Every structure is written in structure tokens, then in C-alpha cells.
Amino acid sequence: MKKIFIVLCASAMLYSCGGGGAKTEKKDTAATQQPTASANQYEDQALPIIGKSDCATCHKINETSTGPAWKDVAKKYEHTDANVKMLAEKILKGGSGNWGTIPMTGHPALTEEEATVLANYVLALK
After folding, report:
1. pLDDT score of 7 more than 80
2. Domain 39-126 carries which CATH code?
3. Structural domain boundaries of the chain?
4. Distance between CA 56 and CA 95 in Å, rounded?
5. 88: burial class by Cβ within 10 Å (0-12, 13-18, 19+)?
């Protein structure tokens, strides 16, 4: 229980550090994170989900942030049905240990279908 409280407090502090120029940063982030339409067939479905969720708070396409770069995830895992299912479960339930000590919080507000779209999108980034 104490560890969960510490993780929640640390997450809240990290989230609150975004401050001031958030509007400008989001525009820049969106511009740098959007691969060409032909590069990823899941982009049209994934970007609205990413926009309504907090994915970009910890993840970027090409850079390691709080979480791993999505392209690094795509390099580590082949784009197979089994890996899509595994990654979708991680998105929904959260987890830790695969990319360092910082845990990824679960996203239970997303549907299983949305998590699958996100997993396909990430794994298609080559």
C-alpha cells in the first residue's frame, strides 16, 4: 500500500511538471509524432485514442521519455497477434519490469478494442 501511494505521488508530481507551455508542446509533439499515412495503417484509428488518453505524457515515437520510445517497443517485439494481445493487456492493466523500474499505469477507461488498435499502431512503427 505504501509503495502504491509513493508511485501515485511521484506520478502526480511528474504530471504536474508539464505546466505553462502545454499548448505549444502538444502542437510540436503532434507534428513530430505523426508518421506518414502510408507508414502505419493504424494511424487514423490510433491518433484520436492517443489524443483522448495520456499516452503522450510518457511516450514519444522516437525518444525515450518516462516510458520507452514506441519505435523501441516495435524493435523489441515482432508484430504478431500474440504480441498485440500482450501489449494491449499491458496498456489496459499496466505493468513494470520490461523497460526499467518505472511502472506503466493501467488504462481501464480504454476499451479492449482501443487498446488493440494502440498495440497494433505501436508495433507497426518500424
Report:
1. no
2. 1.10.760.10
3. 39-126
4. 17
5. buried
